[in-house]
Amino acid sequence: MENNRGLVFHIIHGSFVDGYGIRTTVFLKGCPLRCIWCCNPEGQSSHPEIKFTSSLCDGCGKCLQVCPEKAIYPDPGGEDNKVGIDRELCTNCGRCVQACYKGALDMFGKYFTVGELFALVKKDEQFYRQSGGGATLGGGEATCQPSFTLQFIRKCKENYIHVALDTCGYTKTAEGMRALEEADLLLFDLKGMDSREHLKNTGVPNELILGNLRRLSEMGKAIIIRVPVIPGYTDSERNMRATAEFLAGLKSVERVDLLAFHEYGKVKYEQLGKEYKLKNVQNISNERLEEIKTLYESYGLNVQLGG
Amino acid sequence: MVDRIGMGSSARVKKLRDRILTSPEICIERGYLMTKSYMETEGEPAVIRRAKALEKILKEMSISIEDGELIVGRGSSKLRGGVLTPELNSSWYLEEMDLLSEREWDRFALLTEEEKAKIKEFLPYWKRKSLFSMWSARIPENALRLYNKIQAGGAFCGNNQYYGHVGVDYERVLTKGLTGIKKQVDEELGKLNLAKVKDFEKYQFLKAVNITLEAAIGFARRYAELAASMAEKESDIQRKAELERIAEVCNWVPANPARTFYEAIQSLWFSFLVIQIESFGPGVGFLRADQYLYPFYKKDIEEGRITREEALELIELLYIKTNELVIPYPTEVSKIFAGFTMSANVTLGGLTKDGKDAVNELSYLFLEAEKEVGLNSEDIIIRVHKKNPDAFLIKACEVAKALRGKIKFVSDETIIQQLIKDGKPVEYARDYAITGCNSPTVPGYSLDIPGGIVNLPLMLELALNNGVSRITGEQIGPKTGDPREFKSYDEVWDAYKKQVEALIPVALLFRNVDKQLFAEFLQSPFQSALYHNCIEKGLDVINGGTAPYISFAISLGGAPNVGDSLAAIKKVVFEDKKVTMDKLIDALDKNFEGEEEVLHMLKAAPKFGNNDDYVDSIVNDVLTHAAGEVAKYRGFRGAVSNAAAGVITANIPLGYLVGALPGGRRAGEPLAEGGISPYQGRNVCGPTATMMSVAKLDHLKLTHGSVLNMRFSPGALKDESKIRKFAALIRTFLEAGGALVQFNIVSTDVLRDAQRYPEKYKDLLVRVATYSAYFVELSPELQNDIIARFEFQEV
């Protein structure tokens, strides 16, 4: 039965990004990539994870008493009377979340059956009808939960609800590939053309991704490409040009969205006890974005700034 | 820095717009002249005294024409003038004269010693004669002690406002002229047989109407003379010609039918102004201006008499004029209506009387003009019907974005059904306009006005404290039993219902006596002449002149707090049994001090605004039940008694009176704003979820309207594709059962910056309640309440 349940860490009812029209975006946990700039680090692991917001903690210590692994320790900074979590010891069992009444301890990730999740998505159907919108599966990487994702896509299609899949394209499983093939729209991330750089930035080489993208494009899938523009990582003239050139050779790319670097994800690294590796990255200027846009357009691509 | 908005489409508009961005001042002329007239007319019939007072004011108040003005006529002697209405509520002027320039919000410039002395001289006349003193004397003591506790703003006279919210038929003035209307009055007078008691009553009223019509014509002629004499002395050739034109126009209208778009706008402005001078109140609007002005515009354009740009400028000048007036409120009352608005509504789009798409070129022009002006008193309402083109709605969204919100969007589908349910014929219903905050009315044919905001969360508190206020210890409601003994959710619900059933009648008493006193002492003969049936019937508008099309409403405040609280009790106490009633009541008594664990569990229960039927259905029960209690009793002159989900800014003062609530709100904190907006910050699932929570409520039980405020970050609407999605969002909400939605499209950063550097943000408008106000003129508390509203972000 585990297969029928998907692990979801967030749902937005009424997103103006993530595809055409008004969307309900569902974020699934688990991702094969570890992008340095990842803004959803809570989407990386395939398991529920403890979220700790220290600003809400008043150091009452109830969590210390219930933790079976003794993973929580008191007074880490020595002054503010709060707690710390040893993530090595923590098994994410969630008992501390039950004990915390300040809301400082919470859980990233909740299981839903396909039916339960679909019922939530369906609540927004009237908005899809008016706007040409639908559901979007994002994450994390939805094809990391291939069976659930495929079933959910099919459920949407049975009900004539448009479904988009936001993917990094690093998919090996048969069901994952079926999910990519059956979704109405792919939001396909392209994070670098040089495989070695890609490996350095994301933890995986890019051959599988490019191959999948080529194949899906050959099939004529509706695809929106999403290019993260991260200063010092992906924004080199060489990479931008190579990306545009590659995309210009594909068949069914409807649009290229340039996603500018932002720091909205930073707080979540703290909540997960993870290190935020992007330090001192400058925000990208609008002028530079416009330049890149012009470059892509010179290859005949339809470009949008932002998702 | 803030982007500059409202530059005006011409240098003239820009100059006049900049001038109005100044501190309000009190003008004592109206109050003084009103008093003198009343001293002179003692012993005459009340309605005649009213007419003569208006006549005196219009004859003697100072008049002026500002440099650059094309549309003329002032309601006060000050640039942004607050007018005195001592006939409504007089004593507070004496008590708060100095406070007016010191209080934290709605501040007025200091009065001069001379002005103060004059006020002290004439105000005592009203000591036992002002409407509010008579009202207070008539209300039984055991009810009067509940005033401004169980409700707010329940007596217009106490608020120091006339009831406003009226929808006259301006078309009558534009097509017949006041002389034409006067002819009709004379005909009716000719039919009377004064031996008949009823006819003699009509006679007094009709005579009064004639006095006011002539007075209004005389007022315009004073402006004609002034313009002519200014023209003589003017050396600038262009301005001289303009003044000559003004003289010509004011000589002709509003006495005669308007012949051009310019005359129509001037005639409209005089009509509006005289309505205000007679009965000074918020929510008197221009109604469906894109409909009744269209024939004038079309003819002028076709005959080459005016250009689109000239028409645009005239509309902008009209908007600016509405900002010359503000209402001075007593300090306590100003907490309910904070922000100096006149809510001069303009309702655009929607359906025509015969069910066709009503959007025309003027609808667009009125929108465009608002983008150029964007001040707080003119208030644009977009009626949205399936038949209206997307281009119109999207244009309105663009203007909303440029003005950081401001525009109201209302549902034709919902509101037409509501009006039909309240007994209006379908052709009337289709011709509705919005007045005030959220009140639908049929211009020229019906009177639909509000009457106070009841404090529903207080009633829940009483149910959970055996009728006693937790804040004051006063026995306010009936003894509905020791809440610690309640054994089921139904017992809680029953106790709450009993409190509501005992206290809503008190709010109705306040409301009804208020209307009755207006009918007895302060009729509005000029305004009445601008309806279809008042002259035929010989009855003032407040005295049944529009019967049977009258409704008086009660607004229901804080329903989301009651819903959140009842849902928390149902879930945490009776279903999950995590907390006992005993423990819950302890926690409320302690305002959750030391009860954080209980508070956390209560907060985790379902909250309104997230499209969760568990709690949404309870909010619906709360509204439906209270609306049912309101509807049980007819209003004055047989009025339909109906309800709205609205709270204006009373969510803050009403919140002071309510202790801790089981939904997790602490004692004294504001209640949910808007009326049906989720409690600030509780709607976390996204905009469609919030909208569906509201759209699913039974709006046929809330026929006086409901108010949803939402806040978006400007980034969420950054380009055209996002604006289209925003338009689709609005359309879906309004077609799915919602009634009204409006927005603040401003980031928290900007609002915080404006708190720090108010001088940089003089014209930063925000949606406060169902109207706009300058952010920097609000109290820090209200500013923070706006910041606390959940901001839907770009990502």
Question: Can you walk through the features of this model?
Answer:
The complex is a heterodimer of chains A (307) and B (795). Chain A is of the alpha/beta class. Helices cover 32% and strands 22% of the residues of chain A. Chain A contains 11 helices and 13 strands. In chain A, strands 7-1-2-8-9-10-11-12-13 form a 9-stranded mixed sheet. Chain A has a two-stranded antiparallel sheet with strand order 3-6. In chain A, helix 9 (237-248) links the parallel strand 11 (223-229) and strand 12 (253-260). The two termini of chain A are 35 Å apart. With 795 residues, chain B is α/β, with parallel strands linked by helices. In chain B, strand 16 (765-767) and strand 17 (772-774) form a beta hairpin. In chain B, 49% of the residues lie in helices and 9% in strands. Chain B is built from 33 helices and 18 strands. The longest helix of chain B has 37 residues, at 197-233. Classes of the chains: A alpha/beta (307), B alpha/beta (795). Chain A binds chain B through residues 11-17, 21-22, 24, 58, 100-103, 123-124, 126-127, 129-131, 133, 262, 264, 304-307, and chain B through 596-597, 599-601, 603, 611, 685-689, 691-692, 716-719, 721-722, 724-726, 728-729, 731-732, 735-736, 792, 794-795.
List keywords for this structure.
heterodimer, A: 307 residues, alpha/beta, 9-stranded mixed beta sheet, 11 helices, B: 795 residues, 6-stranded mixed beta sheet, 5-stranded mixed beta sheet, 33 helices, 49% helix
Please give the most extensive interface between any two protein chains, plus how many residues each contributes. Answer: A-B, 29 and 32 residues
| Share of helical residues of chain A | 25-40%
Beginning-to-end CA distance, first to last residue of chain B: 23 Å
Gross morphology of chain B: globular
Q: How many DSSP E strands of chain B?
A: 18
Give a quick account of the main beta sheet of chain A: strands, pairing sense, barrel closure: 9 strands, mixed
Helical run tally of chain B: 33
Given as residue ranges, the uncertain stretches of chain A (5+ residues, pLDDT < 50) are none
Mean pLDDT across all residues of chain B, rounded? 94
For the largest beta sheet of chain B, what order do the strands appear in spatially?
A: 5-6-7-15-14-18
How many helix segments of chain A? 11
Helix content bin of chain B: 40-55%
Question: Uncertain spans of chain B, ≥5 residues at pLDDT below 50?
Answer: none
What is the beta-strand fraction of chain B? Answer: 5-15%
Number of strands of chain A: 13
Radius of gyration of chain A: 20 Å
Q: Give helix and strand order of chain A, one letter per element, not per position.
A: EEEHEEHEEHHEHEHEHHEHEHHE
